[in-house]
Amino acid sequence: MDQVLDELRRGIMRQQSPFAAGVFSLQGDRLSLECNTVKSSSKPSRHGEINAIDQACRSIGKPNLSGYVLVSSAEPCPMCTATAANANVDAIVFGASRQTVAEAGYQTLQLGCVEMIRLTGQSISVIGGVQSDRCAQALLDNPHP
Ligand SMILES: Nc1nc2[nH]cnc2c(=O)[nH]1
Description:
This protein is of the alpha/beta class. The chain has one domain (1-141): 3-Layer(aba) Sandwich (Cytidine Deaminase, domain 2), CATH 3.40.140. It is 42% helix and 19% strand. A 5-stranded mixed beta sheet has the order 2-1-3-4-5. α4 (78-86) packs across α6. Residues 17, 19, 36, 47-49, 72, 74-77, 80, 101, 106 line the site of guanine (GUN). It comes from Neorhodopirellula pilleata. Its EC number is 3.5.4.3.
């Protein structure tokens, strides 16, 4: 999560929204580390998690991340959770909750990551609240304009 928070700060310095994510092996080796690029790309789908999943798949040359974990600074939205499930990640780890994302003024679809994974029927572990104070602070310090 430390690396993800560093990437979030790099994104803020590039005038991006305060979200970042990475894909790591179960041993902790990094496959990708990306920030949200919705603003610079004008594409609503360019969440940090989508960028990290895309880059991770590109780096291994296949759209399958089984054996890998998605780590995100904030609770993945349904779009990102579905993409992680499509890529067969083993687990999703996140920091700030969707309630904090909403509190900072960013749009959130009120379907939680755990509920979304349950709907997929896949057995993907979800661990929320990791370094949640630091992740929440990064959002609240950089609210939606
Ligand atoms: N988790 C997450 N929530 C968001 N809400 C708006 N953008 C993002 C993003 O990149 N990640």
